[in-house]
Amino acid sequence: MASKPGILTDWPWKPLGSFKWVILTPWIAHSTYSFLVNDPKERDLGYFLIFPYMMVRMLHDQIWITLSRHRTAKGKNRIVDKGIEFEQVDRESNCKIFENSITLIPESSHLPLWRTDGVVITALLHAGPVEFLYYWLHRALHHHFLYSRYHSHHHSSIVTEPITCMFSIFLF
């Protein structure tokens, strides 16, 4: 891990271990209750569908991860002759819980499920400033000060797999 860990280098729920997913339970109960009890005009379908969407996304991730691991295990073109460990998979999947923090933003309620103008704006932002900033901020994270405290966590996975790219610490 990091040679000089900086502040916020661990997720707040790390001490919970395998029970870290339990912190989603109150949010799931609240979203389900509010969807069932509220007037149909006041229901927020987007808020209710975040958890099912997260589960579908995790299933999709798992399919690709399984295919990737199968190819690594059975293939002849291995880069590293080492198996993947549970600690690495657990460490790399921590950021999925953090994605639900979008529900804490008041403006994120009652959003439409699809808007074409939003797709166009997102594509333009992603192709333009987001990619530019991502590249240069990632380069900055390779500076010794930031790398030794934060970014080395990202490079600590020796056996890479599809989910490795999503791995980040709480701060980044």
TrEMBL record:
<dbReference type="InterPro" id="IPR050307">
    <property type="entry name" value="Sterol_Desaturase_Related"/>
</dbReference>
<protein>
    <submittedName>
        <fullName>Protein ECERIFERUM 1</fullName>
    </submittedName>
</protein>
